[in-house]
Amino acid sequence: MSELRISQEKVIQAPAAIVYEVLADYREHHHRVLPESFVDFKVESGGRGAGTVMTFKTKNGGLTRSWRGVASEPEPGRRLVETYDNGTVTTFYVDPVDGGTRLRIETVWTPKGLQGLVERLLAPSMLKGVYVKELDNIDAYARSLNSQA
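Structure (tokenized):
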């Protein structure tokens, strides 16, 4: 089967440096912007940017799934990538724009088997909804940090 790519973006009303810091600081900030479908978020090692290893669970559509990922920074300050044990990759694209930051969250994976057929049907709308919440959370949190600066 071919890969599945889901993305959502929003202009965040805070500077790119603050938005990136919220995403890259897994110990202090990142877990604070995750929607309620993410539970039991833990940092196994690292904690800031590349090399951070994190675990968490997601609860969507009555299913709970465990995740373990490693962060990398192919473009520090602009692109943060989380690669999970099952081959799923989530990338955060941070681009400065007038009045704030364009943030895009994109997840790519190759659904397999019968579960893959179900994922192809349900994941796009479910994951986009999760990302809308996450982007709203990031916007509010980054703006609060910006107002404290």
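The chain has two helices and seven strands. The chain has one domain: 4-148.
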